[in-house]
Amino acid sequence: MSDNNNEDLRPTKMRGVLFPKAKYGVIAAIIIIVVVNLIYYKGFIISLIN
């Protein structure tokens, strides 16, 4: 019965949309931030290594 109530709370156009788990969104956000920073600071990181 509680599952039916949860589906009724969503708008009708969004009932068929599957939402990913929140932890996958957090992991994806961290990966995107790390990759963008690596690209942005590539020259600085290479100068630290040399």
Question: What does the model show?
Answer:
- This protein has 50 residues and is mainly alpha-helical.
- It has helices at residues 2-9, 22-40, 42-49.
- The chain has three helices and no strands.
- The protein is rod-shaped.
Short descriptors:
mainly alpha, 0% strand
How would you classify the helix and strand content by structural class?
mainly alpha
Helical amount among residues, as a percent range? over 70%
Shape: rod-shaped
SS field, number of helical segments: 3
Stretches where pLDDT falls below 50 for ≥5 residues? none
Task: Report the strand count.
Answer: 0
Radius of gyration: 20 Å
Q: What is the CA–CA distance across the termini?
A: 63 Å
Portion in beta strands: under 5%
The H/E string reads HHH
Biggest sheet overview: none
- The pLDDT mean sits at 80
